[in-house]
Amino acid sequence: MSSKAFQRTYTRLEAITKATVTLHAQGVSNDELATVDGRLAQVVKMKGDLITLQVFSGTEGIPTNAEVLFHGEPPTLQVSDALAGRFFNAYGDPIDGGPRVEGERRQIGGPSVNPYKRKQPSQLIPTGIAGIDLNNTLVSGQKIPFFADPDQPYNAVMAQVALRADVDKIILGGMGLSNDDYLYFRHEFESAGALNKIISFVNTTEQPPVERLLIPDMALTAAEYFAVDKNEKVLVLLTDMTLYADALSIVSNRMDQIPSKDSMPGSLYSDLAKIYEKAVQLPSGGSITIIAVTTLNDGDITHAIPDNTGYITEGQLYLRADTDTGKVIIDPFRSLSRLKQLVQGKQTREDHSQVMNASVRLYADAQNAKTKLENGFDLSDYDRRCLDYAKDYAVEILSIDVNIGLTQMLDTCWKIFAKYFSKAETGIKQAMIDKYWPAD
Asked: Average per-residue pLDDT in the chain?
């Protein structure tokens, strides 16, 4: 063993697995970074002086006398206002050709904000997407996933949310992005002139999957700097949490841990909760809101990843293709925001919840009419009007490519109601009808 500038070097490995190396070492701390035979690694297990290191790019070709250099610190991010507008890799190094960011060095993956310092979320976060703002209104400090099939344009939706959301900073954590996805995000942000408030941490498919495990912690360390230190409203977008969980699975399998449901590690719930619980509304006005994509395996909502996610988060947004209109919509039946009542009618127009309930109920009646049609039953006049209404509702409200303000969403719903139904058929209170029903 030798020591230079507080870095300790060892040259004898006791054991090597597919993902880890084990050696005897002194004065090492949990999560500390090291270099093994020139490859970056991290302490994942300590038993006395027997230290297990996870090697991010795998251990193939590493000899038993490989040089192990401990860095003396866990992964950190330099935080400052200069993060804005930049793209970084999983280690916080710039990948956009720009200079390194100078700032205060912060350890990533620290504990969540003390519950005593939290406040009940009460600030509306508008996104311009009616399937969210109208039916599943987002609240600052909320944590909510998008459930989507792998062929859905979920990254395009994330980019739209990033560009439309009324917040101070947007932080993108991209895990296992294809190069095309990475370039797409970069092009969208640059061409919209919105780079000054967006910070991106990206791991692409060409990089080791294990590096994905650092991305959420990097993104959330940056988020905490802007929310806690700067009192800013921060929106964190994480895509794709299924690839994050797959990376957890790779590591646990290589470390010979016994898998639980769907070959996921037994720690999956706490691993996901550690990320999502960083969402917070602070009394000072700063907040961290988390929207994360969870891709589904063959639409299986019972798989361990979406199943655990559903217990932790406050609802879900469900993307699906609408066969009648060819549009990708946010499904009003399977989507849910458990916090929407905190802002609906308080920070939005008084008719919000009545319009939302009526529009979804009439859409459900349209689905019943569709079932009757498919089974060969005769349709009533009301059934036919419901079917026509459903197409307009999907195209003008539910479709993810509609970008309008909440007042316009409500006015559009009233217009569609008046086109197909009598006032009584909407079931909306008379006082609201008298005030908002469109003039003939």
From this structure: 90
- pLDDT tens sequence across 36-88: 999 989 898 899 999 999 888 888 899 999 999 998 888 889 999 999 999 99
pLDDT tens digits, 175-215: 999 999 999 999 999 888 888 899 999 999 998 888 899 99
Residue with tokens 């950190």: 76
Six token digits for residue 313: 């988060």
Strands (E), 122-177: 143-148, 169-177
As a whole-number percent, the residues of the chain with pLDDT over 70 amount to: 96
Q: How confident is the model at residue 7 (pLDDT cuts 50, 70, 90)?
A: low
Domain ranges of the chain: 2-70, 76-342, 352-436
Closest C-alpha to 51, from 41, 63, 66: 41
Q: Is the dihedral of CA 278, 279, 280, 286 positive or negative?
A: positive
Q: Where are the alpha helices (DSSP H) in 46-193?
A: 130-133, 154-164, 179-191
Q: Which of 274, 341, 348, 317 is nearest to 120 (CA)?
A: 341
Assess contact for 162 and 198: CB atoms under 8 A. Answer: yes
Residue 148's beta-bridge partner residues? Answer: 295
Q: Report the DSSP beta bridge partners of residue 21.
A: 16, 53
- What beta strand segments (E) does 241-286 contain? 280-281
| Residue 129 CB contacts under 8 Å (≥ 6 apart), including other chains | 157, 160, 161, 164, 330, 400, 402, 403
Instruction: Collapse the DSSP code of 4 into the 3-class scheme (helix H, G, I; strand E, B; otherwise coil) and give the result.
Output: strand
pTM above the 0.85 mark?
A: yes
79 backbone dihedrals φ, ψ, rounded to 5°: -105, 135
What architecture (CATH level 2) is domain 2-70?
Beta Barrel (2.40)
Using CA atoms, how far apart are residues 410 and 345, in angstroms rounded to an integer? 12
Q: Which CATH number fits domain 76-342: 1.10.10.10, 3.40.50.12240, 3.30.70.2190, 1.25.10.10?
A: 3.40.50.12240
Q: What angle do CA 303, 43, 68 make, to 5 degrees?
A: 135
Range with the lowest mean pLDDT among 119-123, 193-197, 257-261, 272-276? 257-261
> What is the DSSP-derived secondary structure letter of residue 211?
G
